[in-house]
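This protein record is not my work; I was only asked to verify it. Take the sequence as given and treat only the tokens as open to question. I have pasted the whole thing underneath without changing anything:
***
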Amino acid sequence: MKALYSMLLLATVLGCASVQPAPVQAGDRCLRCRNTVSDLRLAGEIIDNMRAPFPFRTAGCMAKYVKANGGQGFTAIFVTDYRTGRMLPASSAWFVPTQVATPDGKRTEADYLAFGSRGDAEAARAHDEPLLRWTQVVASAPAN
């Protein structure tokens, strides 16, 4: 009986362990747009309820996917800190609106740079650009 309780406790602890991001690699395909991830400083990742990681080309692309899917079935959402290159929970990041090159390189599109600290985000923004949180990024994403 003691062994059964020990196994149950271990299973509970492992099941509640914090979710860690898987490394997004250059060349991975974005779940939403199917384009390749080329700039890892812009990449994001969703971990689904089965703990499977899904890469995204940019935070903006990931926000469109989250909005279109109503945030259902996600265990964790991560973005890359533009300054350090480390993944962090999207909910704790600060976002600065920016323009990034489209995958074909022929034009630019609105997107975001993510930062782990407010100070880094403030240093990166233009004088009139707002600082945003993840909920604001998702709310402002086009539903496509």
Notes: Confidence is low (pLDDT under 50) at residues 1-16. The beta strands are 44-48, 53-56, 74-80, 87-89, 94-101, 108-115. The longest strand covers residues 94-101.
